[in-house]
């Protein structure tokens, strides 16, 4: 069994992890429109009311699901950041983790669904800002290896570019690949 399979197995031993894994599977299988507390309850042989107790609402479920997904990515990002690879290679590794795996990537569907909701929900806004800050901080850490100048504005610009490129990759924009998206990001690097 691989480390990832062992981690997934350990995660599923905990009831909340089991619920999140089932919600993820439902999202992958049916998309966001059919991801509801009632459908999830049917799959888990429990009531939507019981799930509402834990998540509060669909927004709560989506947020927990996104955090759950991002936590795994942050573990992978830590490995990339701590590697002995060059700064540019580690930046590429960061981008590879950030970008959607394929058109319709469920993690990115969650982001797209949550973005408009953050305008109305302070809890979602705070969580979105926290998750974005983790990526921006990682970018800034790597950029500091390339220049002595203030990297915060560049990290913010790069994160916005990564978001835009990711949406284009998510929707399968013709002619855009992960390699081409990386070249757009790479063009912003200090020389």
Secondary-structure element sequence? HHHHHHHHHH
The mean pLDDT is 88
User: Beta-strand percentage?
Assistant: under 5%
Point out poorly predicted stretches.
6-13
Instruction: Write down how many β-strands occur, each being a DSSP E stretch of 2 or more residues.
Output: 0
Shape: elongated
Kindly, what is the distance between the CA atoms of the first and last residues, rounded to a whole number of angstroms?
Answer: 43 Å
CATH H-level superfamily of the largest domain: Tetracycline Repressor, domain 2
Query: How many distinct helices?
Result: 10
Largest sheet: none
Number of domains: 2
The level 1 CATH classification of the largest domain is Mainly Alpha
| CATH architecture verdict of the largest domain | Orthogonal Bundle
Tell me the CATH topology of the largest domain.
Tetracycline Repressor, domain 2
């Amino acid at each position: 069994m691989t480390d990832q399979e062992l981690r997934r197995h350990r995660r599923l031993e905990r009831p909340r992890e089991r619920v999140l894994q089932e919600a993820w599977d439902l999202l992958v299988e049916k998309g966001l429109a059919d991801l509801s507390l009632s459908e999830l309850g049917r799959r888990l042989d429990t009531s939507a009311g019981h799930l509402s107790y834990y998540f509060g609402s669909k927004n709560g479920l989506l947020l927990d699901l996104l955090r759950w997904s991002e936590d795994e990515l942050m573990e992978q990002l830590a490995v990339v950041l701590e590697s002995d690879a060059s700064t540019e290679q580690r930046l590429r590794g960061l981008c590879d983790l950030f970008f959607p795996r394929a058109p319709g990537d469920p993690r990115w569907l969650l982001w797209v669904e949550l973005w408009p909701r953050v305008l109305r929900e302070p809890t979602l806004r705070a969580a979105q800002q926290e998750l974005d800050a983790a990526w921006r901080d990682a970018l800034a850490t790597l950029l500091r290896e390339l220049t002595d100048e203030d990297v915060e504005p560049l990290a913010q610009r790069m994160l916005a570019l990564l978001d835009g490129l990711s949406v284009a990759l998510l929707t399968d924009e013709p002619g855009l690949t992960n390699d081409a998206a990386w070249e757009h990001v790479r063009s912003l690097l200090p020389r």
